[in-house]
Amino acid sequence: MLMDTLTRDRDMDIALSNEAPHSSVVPSGEGRFVDDYLLYLMARASHAVSAEFHTTLRRAGVQVPVWRVLASLSGSTTGETVTGLAEACLLQQPTMTKLLDRMVRDGLVKRMPDARDRRVVRIAMTPRGEATVRELLVSAKAHEAELLSRFPDIGAHRLKELLRSMAARPARGRRREAA
Amino acid sequence: MLMDTLTRDRDMDIALSNEAPHSSVVPSGEGRFVDDYLLYLMARASHAVSAEFHTTLRRAGVQVPVWRVLASLSGSTTGETVTGLAEACLLQQPTMTKLLDRMVRDGLVKRMPDARDRRVVRIAMTPRGEATVRELLVSAKAHEAELLSRFPDIGAHRLKELLRSMAARPARGRRREAA
DNA sequence: TCATGACACATGAATCTTCATGAGCTAACT
DNA sequence: AGTTAGCTCATGAAGATTCATGTGTCATGA
């Protein structure tokens, strides 16, 4: 995430030095399994395009998971739950709890009680969080537009629909061992 | 098909319960930012389909990064370099070094000297590693086929081409094109 | 030959993530 | 009610990843 999940670009500003001296990958003539494996290609593409934006995040001094939380919160008036955020950000719930600890410490979000269910903690942005995300959203939208412009012949809407349907889980099965 | 209203079928089962009960119909332009953000949709789709396969990995007692290394090694006769594997597996080089430590400890791979360059460590699978990956490859191919069969109207080849071109770095880190 | 710079991999401290579990709360059934 | 099951979030120990370096190797050119 993988999702996801990563910062590359040690060659942000200066860069260009490495003109593929060794084979970065590419072993022998025959293609590797992974080079035609859909799951790998998706992870790789996602990683690559995300890495482009992560450069912007670095410059803003915002960590990737922090950005994901802020982006997920943007537009929410009532706040999101911890578990909901974890799911949205592709993280485990305890990871999110601790990430939120840090974000609270940094003044980006605050915890609030839920009106109906006292188990639930609602996470809302502070003004500082809102200010941070506002700027980043501009960059994110610009980057997305630029990215899409690189692939003029694909329909963005159609692609997004496909991705959404792939993300919809088919059989979220907890199979208890029946045998 | 159901299209725009389906935009929220991915709404997981998490339910941002802030969906006010009275406004049951939301103007479709007013979803969360992330729900129409390409980078997020890619990460989410990648995460979801990978998670399906991770179930198989768990059953086999193989960690995700271990699988990635084995899959990347499969088919390589000369072995891969540590840096090459890190790149292939979307990890940092120190992470790969330590992951390989564990895999060596578990008898899945071995480190070998490079014939021409003594800086380089070549990673090759042990028989045990090969046996492990052989079984997993069968499952992976089956899963991929099943996954693709869920989306009959998309051309797999075309999709993969798109993903490959997205993964190719645009700006700085130019990379050779391979057949 | 000796600098110099780039490269490949390893290492340790700090950080982040995960696993397993705990405590509090809600709902449903008896 | 009382019981039970399931849910939400937090926590601590264990594990994994990253950042910043360190060590050794290679290549180039003075």
Summarize the structure.
Chain A is mainly alpha-helical and 179 residues long. The first copy, chain A, has six helices and three strands.
What does this structure look like?
The structure is a homodimer of 179-residue chains. Chain A is mostly helical and 179 residues long. In chain A, 49% of the residues lie in helices and 7% in strands. Chain A is built from six helices and three strands, in the order ααβααββαα. Chain A has helices spanning 38-60, 64-73, 82-88, 93-105, 127-149, 156-167; strands spanning 80-81, 109-113, 121-125.
Strand order of the largest sheet of chain A: 1-3-2
SS-derived structural category of chain A: mainly alpha
If classified by CATH, what would the architecture of the domain at 63-151 in chain A be?
Orthogonal Bundle
What share of the residues of chain A lie within helices? 40-55%
Query: What is the chains' assembly state?
Result: homodimer
Shape annotation of chain A: globular
Radius of gyration of chain A over alpha carbons? 20 Å
Instruction: Outline the low-pLDDT stretches of chain A.
Output: 1-29, 171-179
The total count of helices of chain A amounts to 6
Number of strands of chain A: 3
Mean pLDDT of chain A: 81
What letter string, H or E per element, gives the SSE order of chain A? HHEHHEEHH
Most extensive chain contact? A-B, 80 and 80 residues
CATH topology term of the domain at 63-151 in chain A: Arc Repressor Mutant, subunit A
